[in-house]
Specification:
With 276 residues, the chain is α/β, with parallel strands linked by helices. The protein contains 10 helices and 9 strands. It has 2 domains: 61 residues, no CATH class; 192 residues, Vaccinia Virus protein VP39 (Rossmann fold).
């Protein structure tokens, strides 16, 4: 039997920059304890079944499977979300969409739309911060809609709802004061598709044509029919796509078009308002 400290220094840890963190997350999950427990009691010996469970998860991680899929959960904003292989894993960069929406728009009643909601991360973060908003999340994948609804129910956010829709296809006649989206934006031949966690994520949620902008073009073209006057459209995109997205927004008649940078200094989101 091994101690917690010995397990965390196992020679078979994943070969990745986050190997220690990965191991801590997996072992804490196997023990049903917070990570702080591992530092407080490093000399304790987990039960045999707990060590076996940790070893099995470690094997999956060595094969490259993302920790979030192994655990079935991922933190986003202030929320803990269920995740599954048919949705993207929520990432910290996407929190910039939430931060910007909350900065731009007051807490007064508003209808907001999250396109391609996946786990429901963006929609639920907005709903948690703005109880007076009515937030709708849509996704073309039925399993994603069901997963987002499970997250909503567990978090008891009654001002959010999730529906099936391919972008705006099921939203005829509906208008919103805010539309946000983290759509697919990776080019079909991008080498990063064969690296890291994205190897395990659904390609349909990542790839958008030859230049990665097919879905963004479609959203920008259709969004004016679904925005209230003065409403905002916020889009996440690739680190090198900001100029192209700003051009698309301006060409579609959006005003106050600009981009905002993530913590790494990359222009990660672009946005514009309708008619003002």
């Amino acid at each position: 039997m091994a101690t917690i400290e010995q397990l965390l220094n196992h020679p078979d840890l994943p070969d990745s920059p986050s190997a220690r963190l990965d191991a801590e997350l997996l072992l804490a999950f196997a023990l049903g304890k917070p990570r702080s427990y591992l530092r407080t009691w490093p000399e304790r010996e987990p039960a045999a079944e707990q060590q076996d469970a940790f070893a099995a998860m470690l094997q999956r991680r060595r094969g490259g499977e993302p920790v979030a899929y192994i655990l079935g959960q991922q933190g986003f904003w202030s929320l803990e979300l269920e995740v599954a292989p048919h949705t993207l894993i929520p990432r910290p960069d996407t929190e910039l969409l939430v931060e910007t929406a909350l900065e731009l728009l007051p807490a007064t009643p508003l209808r907001a739309l999250d396109l391609g909601t996946g786990t429901g991360a963006i929609a639920l973060a907005l709903a948690s911060e703005r109880p007076g908003w009515r937030v709708t999340g849509v996704d073309r994948v039925a399993e994603a809609v069901a997963l987002a609804e499970r997250n909503r129910q567990r978090l008891k956010l009654n001002n959010a709802e999730f529906r099936p829709s391919q972008w705006f296809s099921a939203l005829a006649g509906e208008r919103y004061g805010l539309i946000v989206s983290n759509p697919p934006y990776i080019a079909a031949d991008d080498r990063h598709l064969g690296e890291g966690d994205v190897r395990f994520e659904p390609a349909s949620a990542l790839v958008a044509g030859v230049d990665g902008l097919d879905d963004i073009r479609q959203i920008i073209a259709q969004a004016p029919r679904h925005l209230e006057p003065g409403g905002w459209l916020l889009l996440e995109h690739g680190y090198d796509q900001a100029a192209a997205v700003r051009e698309l927004l301006a060409a579609a008649g959006f005003a106050r078009v600009h981009s905002r940078r993530d913590l790494g200094g990359h222009e990660r989101i672009s946005l514009g308002s309708l008619g003002t």
